[in-house]
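Example S7 (structure tokens).
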């Protein structure tokens, strides 16, 4: 046993130290043995402690939740900015561009907030807000489509269509709940016009030429929308008459000449713009009408709905080349 200890320490401390350790152990008897054992135990304990310390993993920092208020504002502010540009649009083309921005910002906000870590107090409001923003994006896209296909054909009506958006109403309602819960935003609904349904009395002359001739022009509007029918020379309206749906009207005193016949139909007649603002259709008869005064005056009659024995063809006209009534 002792020689084993002596050899063990030779490699580390040298032969003299190893011998001394052997002599001390022999002269001390059992006490020396106890001391050596204690030293070994202490070293072992220290080693165990070191192992335990190195085995304990470092704690992972808990991510700090971003404050909800800034997240909400960052999502909503671009929607507010886009909506503020609606009233600044001066044409349907400009408004179409603005509506594209409204739709994109609303959809982006919906995606962002759907992933946000909201406080429990606004969970319901946030769900409603995400749904409303998605709806607003769809509503803006619908108005753009209506502009493209002339279902909305005036700036005021397009703005009114956006103002009637259920998505816009929903966003406002959800953000009011957010404000009550302590999370205000700068969101504001722009002041937008209401949709109107204006019309003229049947037979009203929208454009009245000299009407010093002897010709008669009769119109039977059996269609489902009001219409304005124009007799035009060289692409310019000379006489234009308003014919309500299901009604007939006559223009008397038409001067001699060969006229083109244009007609527009729709809903909500804007007297200032001289055009319908909704469901607009622009057409012309392919044949011209010749009015001549001789022994008798000329009378022409047209119908604005297809008839079984009709002999007149019509074609659509680009609104940009349609003569203003």
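Recovered sequence:
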């Amino acid at each position: 046993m002792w020689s084993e200890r002596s050899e063990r320490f030779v490699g580390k401390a040298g032969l003299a130290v190893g011998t001394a350790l052997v002599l001390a152990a022999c002269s001390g008897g059992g006490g020396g043995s106890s001391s050596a054992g204690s030293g070994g135990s202490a070293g072992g304990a220290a080693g165990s402690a070191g192992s335990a310390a190195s085995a304990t993993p470092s704690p992972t920092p808990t991510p700090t939740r971003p404050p909800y208020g800034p997240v909400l504002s960052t999502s909503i502010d671009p929607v507010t900015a886009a909506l503020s540009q609606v009233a600044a649009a001066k044409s349907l083309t400009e408004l179409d561009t603005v509506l594209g921005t409204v739709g994109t910002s609303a959809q982006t906000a919906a995606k962002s907030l759907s992933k946000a870590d909201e406080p429990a107090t606004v969970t319901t409001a946030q769900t409603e807000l995400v749904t409303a923003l998605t709806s607003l994006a769809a509503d803006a896209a619908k108005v753009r489509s209506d502009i493209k296909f002339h279902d909305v054909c005036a700036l005021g009506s397009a703005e009114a269509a956006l103002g009637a958006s259920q998505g816009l109403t929903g966003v406002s309602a959800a953000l009011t709940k957010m404000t009550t819960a302590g999370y205000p935003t700068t969101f504001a609904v722009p002041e937008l016009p209401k949709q109107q349904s204006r019309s003229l009395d049947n037979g009203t002359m929208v454009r009245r030429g000299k009407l010093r001739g002897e010709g008669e022009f009769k119109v039977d509007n059996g269609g489902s929308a009001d219409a304005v029918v124009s007799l035009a020379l060289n692409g310019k309206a000379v006489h234009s008459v308003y014919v309500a749906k299901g009604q007939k009207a006559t223009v008397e005193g038409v001067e001699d000449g060969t006229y083109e016949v244009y007609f527009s139909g729709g809903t909500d007649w804007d007297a200032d713009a001289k055009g319908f603002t909704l469901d607009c259709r622009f057409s012309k008869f392919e044949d011209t009408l010749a009015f001549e005064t001789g022994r008798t005056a000329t009378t022409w009659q047209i119908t604005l709905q297809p008839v079984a024995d009709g002999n007149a063809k019509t074609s659509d006209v680009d609104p940009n080349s349609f003569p203003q009534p």
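Notes on this example. The chain has a mean pLDDT of 85.
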